[in-house]
Amino acid sequence: xxxxxxxxxxxxxxxxxxxxxxxxxxxxxxxxxxxxxxxxxxxxxxxxxxxxxxxxxxxxxxxxxxxxxxxxxxxxxxxxxxxxxxxxxxxxxxxxxxxxxxxxxxxxxxxxxxxxxxxxxxxxxxxxxxxxxxxxxxxxxxxxxxxxxxxxxxxxxxxxxxxxxxxxxxxxxxxxxxxxxxxxxxxxxxxxxxxxxxxxxxxxxxxxxxxxxxxxxxxxxxxxxxxxxxxxxxxxxxxxxxxxxxxxxxxxxxxxxxxxxxxxxxxxxxxxxxxxxxxxxxxxxxxxxxxxxxxxxxxxxxxxxxxxxxxxxxxxxxxxxxxxxxxxxxxxxxxxxxxxxxxxxxxxxxxxxxxxxxxxxxxxxxxxxxxxxxxxxxxxxxxxxxxxxxxxx
Length: 393
Description:
12 helices, 2 domains, Aspartate Aminotransferase, domain 2, 38% helix
């Protein structure tokens, strides 16, 4: 038996293990201190009422023979695929329900989609990056081209001149930086992909947080995107499905490479490798796209954006450079006094009992920066923002 030796190329992931170890040591030494956790990327508000009602109804349906549901279509129940296509239509994007694929979450799809592409294809990934982009590509045995982002470009790098690639990972609004591409910037990426025949894997997990009219919610708002892009989205950070697990992927029928339809290929992949997502969860997901569900979800997002404003106001008053917070649920700040990311982590933990995420954990370009999440409680966020400002001043 020969193992997949690409796994030997993976670097040890010490970021969250390192955070946990430092926090545990501090708590043991200072059991009386309350910690304010601004690093976790998990939501804290419960599922909205419309979703809960739909989940309960679907559970009750499973108790009666006449309404019982067994295996669901591997690519998604027609009622949910239609609801998602209708959601896109409300934003001016025309999709066929058959171009929408229901998944158990965006993270799963980001790795599984690589089945569509030969291992010889290179993947261009801008850093700082969600670690799974690089790790999934390395596991698949493909070469990774790292595109550096920094303060000079607002952590939004543009297509490199004279350089080609096969796959492009784009996340906008971005995790970890919270930065988001404008329409004109994203159009340049679409044009670049079409010119060199690349396929963009567009992570739109945070699109519901967009506030500015010039920031696209979907890559398919851009001219030519259907011939070069796949979009992955999630209900985790929009509707609170982090523990429930539901997402969707859009693979346009117009996306063809060397005479092969990637939509048809993905149908074949899903019908071979999955048995579909639970009927109960899909009913809950469909409720998220009703007018009632959308209104309730919007209220929850406003709550998290209120948390973001507490943090951005504190950073503004302290005169610290940052990006994010307006169009996404993360803030990405420059560490003060030239500190490295882990030194600033220790300063926050030991001096003001605030826990965040060192930027270097998202790649070398993140060194000297720090990520805060806005998914905490309002009370904890307010205290953390006040303590952060005092420390920075």
